[in-house]
Backbone:
């Protein structure tokens, strides 16, 4: 039934004129978003057409493949497509498909490293990926401590050490003040109180932008 026009009663339109046929009963059974859409007789239900402007045809195709076949081809190979997984993570959040979202999040968590920890934190924050946020934050804390130790001069005053620690988190304040408010809040606290990073447990900022520490 995947991309089959047989008995299809709804069509996705993306990238201007690309049409992907689908079936309402299956969409409703897999996604709460589609269930609400067709249940309440919205415009898409009346016209039998869902116009998608923010998702490309390849991403939408993989999304539908998961709904119909319960698999994502890019996750089955040795080198998964990181960008594709990120986009599917966003689509799963948009259309309320928790099984796909969890699958993508687990894969993203495995690939969090020093070079992308801040970006992955922002991704998790924007699309409600708490596990991804926690892993990214853990990596940032660990790398911060390591980098400060490696760069520490042999004879360093307390004031110099304080300034060096503050500098690390101020980088995030400059880089993410617009895209990720919660990371900004955390970075501001860390830049003023770097000793927090050495505490036994550091939790991600709450939705109110406050830092929780124990």
Residues:
């Amino acid at each position: 039934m995947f991309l089959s026009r047989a008995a299809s009663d709804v069509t996705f339109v993306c990238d201007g004129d690309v049409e992907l046929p689908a079936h309402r009963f299956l969409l409703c059974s897999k996604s709460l978003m589609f269930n609400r859409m067709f249940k309440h007789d919205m415009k898409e239900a009346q016209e039998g057409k869902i116009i998608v402007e923010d998702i490309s045809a390849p991403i939408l195709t993989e999304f539908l493949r998961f709904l119909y076949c319960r698999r994502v081809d890019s996750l089955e190979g040795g080198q998964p497509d990181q960008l594709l997984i990120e986009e599917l993570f966003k689509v799963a959040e948009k259309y309320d498909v928790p099984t796909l979202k969890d699958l993508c999040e687990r894969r993203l968590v495995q690939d969090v490293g020093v070079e992308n920890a801040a970006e992955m934190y922002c991704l998790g924050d924007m699309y409600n990926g708490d596990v991804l946020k926690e892993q990214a934050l853990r990596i940032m804390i660990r790398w911060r401590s390591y980098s400060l130790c490696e760069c520490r001069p042999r004879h360093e005053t307390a004031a110099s050490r304080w300034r060096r620690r503050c500098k690390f988190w101020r980088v995030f304040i400059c880089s993410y003040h617009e895209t990720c408010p919660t990371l900004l809040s955390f970075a501001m606290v860390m830049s003023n109180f770097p000793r927090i990073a050495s505490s036994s447990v550091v939790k991600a900022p709450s939705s109110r932008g406050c830092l929780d520490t124990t």
Summary: The radius of gyration is 22 Å. Residues 151 and 187 are 20 Å apart (CA to CA). The chain has two domains: 10-71+80-110, 117-198.
